[in-house]
Amino acid sequence: MSYQTINPLTDEVIKTYDNHDDAYVEKAIAKGHALYKKWRNDPVESRAAALNKVADVMEAQTDELAKVLTLEMGKRFLEAQGEVAICVSIARYYAKNAAEFLKPEPIESSIGPAQTISRPTGVLMTVEPWNFPYYQIMRVFAPNFMVGNPMLLKHASYTPMAAGAFEKVVSEAGLPDGAFTNLYVDYDQVNHIIADDRVQGVALTGSERAGQLIAAEAGKSMKQSSLELGGSDPFIVLEDADLSEIKKIIGGARLYNAGQVCTSSKRFIVTENNYDAVLDMLKTAFAEAKIGDPMDATTTLAPLSTSNAKQNLTKQVKLAVEAGATLAYGSVEQNLPAAQFEPVILTNITKENPAFYQEFFGPVGQVYKVKDEEEAIALANDSHYGLSGVVFGGSADHAAEVASQLETGAVFVNSFGGTLPELPFGGVKNSGYGRELGRFGIETFVNKETIVTKHEPIDLNDAFGGFV
């Protein structure tokens, strides 16, 4: 596996990185494990100031860090600045709230005082993707740093500069050696790391196939795991929806980050009377998108992350059209240079079409016509994925009732979903399992240890219900 920084606007190779050898990996695991043994007896509060310092360093270096994302994976500079900002807020959120989340919980017990205490589990291995290079790291790093779990990172081969930049932030913030280590390694090395007894958990955000492989390796070694594997998120427009509100956000719901967002709206499911209007809105939003240099503030649609991503997405569109889908906007042939991609809208997609169950990771929108909300719910749930969704309706209460029937990890009513530190993030079905962010996000790799205190001898017949 070769780690390279390639500018997706021009396809220029900026830098090639040497992989870390097994000796370097061993030292990283050993440092992390030594730090875990020290941290496991330290109070959670003792790490809050250090995590706030990480936030301070990131905030002070916002523009520098954002430029790395723009150069390396093509993210619009304004969006890259926003990614740094959400990382800062996640770090501050856990620095402020972790002690409360992890405080001992008393339990009523018939045999004496009892409580659960939250303990770190050990070194974690994380495998992260290229679409939000800092945010994906911070979602795992911030809560687990507060817990006391040191972190090893294998980032995407497309974003080695961003991985190194995050490690540099941690170092400049003065965190102890071993708290966070970036590794340029291949998947064979990842498997060996997961199998190491000193490593006690693995978190992955990535493709469905990558998730299957990592989950299998974690299972072999009986390691805890958390997976976020993408989605084909529905955007439901009910009969009484306020179309003027939809018009404001429909373009961004699909085109933010060049459509390379697991939780972006990919399937627009619209009742018959609103179908033409919503389709026209999406066409207009796509037509108004300005494709160009992501450093240019007037650009609204940046290139895809790599030319390879462009080739794969172009092939998906071509196969969908060959299988009978209607090309309602855009072109099958993509003639823009490097990784730039002209938006596409597909309609009339049947269940027999391979596109029906696929995730299109880029600026491709699918629009479906349904007769009523029951059909909309059924269509939304007829998916291998279940990460997020949107429901628009005139009555927020009724739209929320519809939202509650969707098989997904989160639903946003009358708004397009974003990310906030306090909102749990994760999915069901092939979108993975486990949660990041919020209170749940700090509990994934925590040992909930039960402590029972009894000052008098216990009658085992009473304790075990007469089975002894």
TrEMBL record:
Cell division listed as a keyword: no
Keyword Lipid metabolism belongs to the record: no
Aldehyde dehydrogenase domain location: 3-450
Coiled-coil spans in chain: none
GO molecular function: aldehyde dehydrogenase [NAD(P)+] activity; succinate-semialdehyde dehydrogenase (NAD+) activity
Pfam families per record: Aldedh
Top-rank lineage group of the source organism: Bacteria
Keywords for the protein's UniProt record, in alphabetical order: NADP, Oxidoreductase
Family: Belongs to the aldehyde dehydrogenase family.
Protein name: NAD-dependent aldehyde dehydrogenase
